Amino acid sequence: MTTNALSARPTFVATFQRLRLGPYLFMVGFALVVYLIIGPEQFVNALTIGSIYALVAIGYTMVYGIIELINFAHGDVFMVGAFCSMYVLTTPLGQTGPVTDPPALAVILFIDFAVTMLVMGTLGTAIERFAYRPLRNAPRLAPLITAIGVSFILQNIIQIIYGPSPINTPQIIDPAARVVVGGLSIGVINIFIFVTAVTLMIGLQMFVSRTRLGRAMRSTAQDREAAQLMGVDINRTIAATFFIGSALAGAAGVVQGLYFGNIQFTLGFQAGLKAFTAAVLGGIGNITGAALGGFLIGFVEVTAAAQGYFVWAQAAVFAVLIITLVFRPSGLLGQQLGERT
Amino acid sequence: MTQTADSGGRPTGGAAAEPSTLLEARGLTRRFGGLVACRDVDLRIPSGGIVSIIGPNGAGKTTFFNVVAGIIDPSGGTVEFRGRTLISRPRRTWLEPVFWVLPAAIVLLVEYLLGTFSGDEESISLGAIAVIAVLAATLLTAIIRPRWYSRFIDRFGVLRSARPNDVVAAGIGRTFQNIRLFQNMTALENVLVGMHLKLRSNLGDHLISSRRQRADEEAATRRASELLALVGLQGIENELAKNLPYGDQRRLELARALANDPVLLLLDEPTAGMNPNETAEMTALIGRLRSDLGVSVLLIEHDMRVVMGISDRILVLDHGEQIAEGSPDEVRRDQRVIEAYLGTGAS
Amino acid sequence: MSAIAGSTAGSTGTDPGLRARLRDFSNRHRSITVIVGMAITAIALPLIVLLPPFSSFSGQNIWLDGFTIAGIYVLLALGLNIVVGLSGLLDLGYAAFFAIGAYTYAFAASPFTGNEFPFWPMLLVGALMAATFGILLGAPTLRLRGDYLAIVTLGFGEIVPIAILNSSKYTDGPNGIGGITPPSIGDFLFPTTGNPWPFYLTMLALITLSMILIYRLQDSRLGRAWMAIREDELAAAANGVNTVTTKLLAFALGASTAGLAGVFLASKLQTVTPNLFRFDVSFTVLAMVVLGGMGNIWGVAVGAFIIFMIQSVFLKQLNLFFDNVNVPILSDIDFLQYQFLLYGVALVAMMLLRPEGLFPSRRRRRELHTEEDAAFGELGDPMGAAPK
């Protein structure tokens, strides 16, 4: 029996694999199980937290996809974004609490997001320009160490300015405001965060697949030399990648402050690890994967916390990382590689 | 089918067609997603022979090479070396990690059923420690790979293809197309790494700097110097590899590959970037390896003078498929080869 | 003894004969060099601090105490150097092994558990415990690429203090375990205040022993295998090196050194708490290894010592750990902040400007001499040249 695999009719399994229904089904199933375990309240909470992780994870995965570097400082960009948002809200905009007037709220939110995302994008690009680009041809260990150094610099600057204790942030969307959807009472803030995150992610996906710069990013991630030969400006493309990733992290920072009401300089370190796990889980280099991974990690963390094992929630996330790396290093949506290094 | 593919395996039984076959690749195939990099390639390397693989760029030569060297797993086919299956398509490799986790999972389950987790912190911690200990034990076993472990894994049809260091242990050495020396180590140290498997002292010996360790090291240093002299690099033992001129670097890589006393050398474009003089020298050196050391050679080459001058047999690949295989004269006259690669008037 | 022959055979012609011969001697007889060097240090340090201006800072006893604590960091740096410097594996959770060693001794010799095991064998036990965890951590992760390894070790370094903090039943959580027995020789119990000499000399002995052993490893086929992995892992495998076991050994041996340091720490401070072992420690030791010249054993030791001295003298407190055990004074935190900011800047600057560290080893100096105007990228680097 010598059926050439290439000429046989596509089997169900092959189609299933090609459309990558598997990972999505897994997601849905997992979400269902989580919903049954923790109930609708916490499920909404998990979606919200997952949104934050997803936004940060995207930055990790984009950078890794294009220059194969784990940007340790990325989590701290998220943290600086949170502080930046707090600053924008409190100092120029002078907010201290919930804003009730919808148009004013919209304007304030817009300014907050716009400024924070712009500043963070610039910060990320600057970090790349001064700390990573000179080491682009250096062996693996050098930019990793530099990234750690930058991470520490960011953390300590914020710590010096704002002190080590948690700082309160104005929750301009009233945390107590709720809407009733289909018999469930859901917080407005939760809906806002989820919608914002998904909108940003869809926007990014469209950007990457439809625009010239997005194509440049994808091609550079696949084969840098070939892209260069095709006329892609590598430096500009990488800088743009960092800008977008950091801007998204900035958005996540805004959201963090709005949802939790307080921020601390250690935020980036904690969240960074989890967001990176999310990126790995979803398939490093894959933007949709990072988004999925973010939500998954949100589920894991909230489930563990809801069961009372709050401190072990961190260990649970770490365990997820190890399991993914050992059993399926390409993540949910990544390619299965057959090579050994 | 319970053949092991790693270097601890048993002979395949059934004599090879000719008693002097050193390496035989049968139906070797490698797919990357939808792309078939190399399809159904057969190759026979006789003992003491020099075989070249030629073909246009992208023909699958390096892929084939990397499969034989154990760096990539094949999607199909086998490679037999000295009568043993060395490389074959891995089967059920996912099963192995399951075995690592299974004992710990069973312990976890047992504890859950016994209700260890409903108690206080103490019992949870004890339970966790037990699980971790079992996991550690299984992982250590997997790393050390004692015989009974390999046999146990075999029984479930798990087939693991040879890793690069297994391939070296079997007696195959290789060089790389774009020189992969240890840049910040000296020439001598590079060759000494090549002798890694020959040195028999272990961790304990290292720590106490035993007599065996010192004797080993001295003997190794002497042998390394000899090898360097053999390839024409005497006197530069203490130069950093990265400071050597290009031609010397190629020779150094050769010396390193020879350090393990291989019976087969895989040379990936050994004369790339060399001028005609250097090419002639390298060709002569390869010939001497065969005549003086009895080493067989598998060569990837683009330079036709080298290929035609030194090969006993030539394999021609194009788009992953084997389009010709035979002696230099046969290949030179083969119509398909001429069209695909040589062009008319190749000498 | 050393497989690396002395530099007499026509390498850099600029070395005067005496220096070359001295270097050759030190290569051939590493152990003697280490012992002599450490003996000189042991005698010189206490004498130097009797001179002004050092004598005006603190009395000799306090200085020696500070040196002993510095020695702990030297040990840590030596151990991490095996992992990061020699083998090129970025381990960001090194403090976890330090914690394991410390808590092992705490379990073995404190009223908390009621055990009274003697100190000296516990050194070995602590090292072995840490090594075991090194293997446990490494086993599932060493097939991964370097970046992933860094993240996983970071996670591990986070998990261990958290686990210790939250297993109150076993570790008395945030309070830590106190009343740990100091070492003793026969009936002589090491004084924990006043006479610093017993601890000081013990630490020197530990460092000497570690350096001798690590040098022996570096000059053996294992050391070469480590360096080969650092330079080019694929080529190392293609030459017969079993990368998995070799990396595991690097991890285990590096961890065991941290375990050793941990046992010593516990016996000196008599108290161990989880917040002695946070990422700060891992980061500081990493900074020491990088700044001291990765892979260079003496350089790392000296670098660690200098950096620690700067840190503690600058902070005008010689017993950093003592203050950590008590309620932290607010001013301390401010100083610590600047210190880590400085480390961060130093790391970045180092990587960009002088990646071979403050004390480039003999081989790096050679490369700088012979290829002076080659750009950094082409020159490659001891940290793992990826071939282009």
Topology of this structure?
The complex is a heterotrimer of chains A (341), B (347) and C (388).
Chain A: H1 12-18, H2 21-67, H3 74-90, H4 102-132, H5 141-162, E1 167-168, E2 178-181, E3 184-187, H6 188-210, H7 212-222, H8 224-229, H9 234-260, E4 262-263, H10 267-282, H11 287-306, H12 310-327
Antiparallel strand pairs in A: 1-4, 2-3
Helix pairs in contact in A: 2-6, 2-9, 2-10, 2-11, 3-4, 3-5, 3-9, 3-10, 4-9, 6-7, 6-9, 7-9, 10-11, 10-12, 11-12
Chain B: E1 21-32, E2 35-46, E3 50-54, H1 61-68, E4 76-81, E5 84-88, H2 95-114, H3 121-144, H4 147-155, H5 164-170, E6 172-174, H6 187-194, H7 203-208, H8 211-230, H9 246-258, E7 264-268, H10 276-293, E8 296-300, H11 304-310, E9 313-318, E10 321-326, H12 328-333, H13 335-342
Helix pairs in contact in B: 2-3, 6-8, 6-9, 8-9
Chain C: H1 17-28, H2 30-48, H3 54-57, H4 60-86, H5 95-108, H6 119-141, H7 146-166, H8 168-171, E1 184-185, E2 188-189, H9 197-218, H10 221-231, H11 233-237, H12 243-269, H13 279-292, H14 297-314, H15 320-325, H16 330-353, H17 362-370, H18 376-379
Antiparallel strand pairs in C: 1-2
General description of the model:
With 341 residues, chain A is mainly alpha-helical. Chain A has one domain: Orthogonal Bundle (ABC transporter involved in vitamin B12 uptake, BtuC), CATH 1.10.3470. In chain A, 72% of the residues lie in helices and 4% in strands. In chain A, a hairpin with a 2-residue loop joins strand 2 and strand 3. The longest helix of chain A has 47 residues. Chain B folds into 3 domains: 184 residues, Rossmann fold; 61 residues, no CATH class; 78 residues, no CATH class. Helices cover 44% and strands 19% of the residues of chain B. A 6-stranded mixed beta sheet of chain B has the order 6-7-8-3-9-10, sandwiched between helices. In chain B, strands 2-1-4-5 form a 4-stranded antiparallel beta sheet, covered by helices on one side. In chain B, a hairpin with a 2-residue loop joins strand 9 and strand 10. In chain B, helix 2 packs antiparallel against helix 3 and helix 6 packs parallel to helix 9. The two termini of chain B are 47 Å apart. The relative contact order of chain B is 0.16. Chain C is mainly alpha-helical. In chain C, helix 4 runs antiparallel to helix 12 and helix 13 packs parallel to helix 16. The longest helix of chain C is centred in the first third of the chain and has 27 residues. Chain C is globular and about 55 Å long. The chains are: A mainly alpha (341), B alpha/beta (347), C mainly alpha (388).
